[in-house]
Amino acid sequence: MADASDDQDPFFERVRAVVAQIPPGRVTTYGDIAEHLGRRGAARTVGWALNDAVGSGLPCHRVVNRNGVLTGKRHFETPRVMEERLRSEGVEFVDEDRVNLDEHWWTPSDAA
DNA sequence: ATCTTGACCTCTA
DNA sequence: CTAGAGGCCAAGA
């Protein structure tokens, strides 16, 4: 297994690693993750990674857009899951689909 | 192999 | 202030 086939470090794997390290009660943004990985405008790709992460055990509900809006709630099993989960963790909502980033903003650099 | 879509962000007019 | 376009990476048809 020393072939160039087991290299799982493109972008997907890295995004998942970061999202998996998001502590409860905290929220992060796509742009922050992308920027932390070295890609500033690759925020879209981050979402793609989560698209495959749904059901993989990743707390994708803790990832919101720059405005703190639960953009990806529609991709969940049920749009309600995302909101219910965040609320269950102690996250406060300033709007129907907007969380208080000023109170629960977590960054990849805050890990460890 | 090519084109389109996709859970985004940022800049410029 | 609002509106429009560009850029990034990956997967599906």
Question: Tags for this entry?
Answer:
112 residues; mainly alpha; Arc Repressor Mutant, subunit A; 4 helices; 2 strands; DNA-binding
The radius of gyration is 14 Å
Instruction: Provide the CATH topology.
Output: Arc Repressor Mutant, subunit A
Total helix count? 4
CATH architecture: Orthogonal Bundle
User: What structural category characterises the helix and strand content?
Assistant: mainly alpha
Query: Widest sheet: strand order?
Result: 1-2
Q: What is the subunit organization of this protein?
A: single chain
CATH superfamily: Winged helix-like DNA-binding domain superfamily/Winged helix DNA-binding domain
* Strands, count: 2
Largest sheet: 2 strands, parallel
Binned strand content? under 5%
Provide structural commentary:
- The protein is mostly helical and 112 residues long.
- A two-stranded parallel ribbon has the order 1-2.
- The protein has 4 helices and 2 strands; from the N terminus they run αβααβα.
- It has a single domain (12-103), classed as Arc Repressor Mutant, subunit A.
- It has helices at 12-20, 30-37, 43-53, 79-89, and strands spanning 28-29, 63-64.
- It is globular and about 35 Å long.
- The structure holds a DNA duplex (13 and 13 nucleotides).
